[in-house]
């Protein structure tokens, strides 16, 4: 059987480990931090909404909701400012290049 051939056995193990480790590090360094940040943000939003819903009375719940929204924006101000800076740093040529790549 070719999969048990002693001549190519080392090559198969080598390429398997190389492919597995490369996919592992891509997921570890690229995908997991993004997922963790989004789950953390989602949990904060749920906590803010539930805190606003637990208040008694309509006026106090609105006040609590807007207070929670303000707290959320304060905590994530750095994230929003870096995203805005990255968006502003794109030149007009790169914006058109991105648009043409996404269209075609």
UniProtKB/TrEMBL annotation:
Signal peptide: none annotated. It is found in: Mitochondrion membrane. GO terms for biological process: ATP biosynthetic process. It holds the Pfam family YMF19. Keywords: ATP synthesis, Membrane, Mitochondrion, Transmembrane, Transmembrane helix. The chain crosses the membrane at residues 12-36. Residues 2-66 form the ATP synthase YMF19-like N-terminal domain. GO terms for cellular component: mitochondrial membrane. It comes from the Eukaryota. The keyword Nucleotidyltransferase does not apply. Its main location: mitochondrion. InterPro entries: YMF19-like_N (IPR003319). This is ATPase subunit 8. It comes from Nannochloropsis granulata.
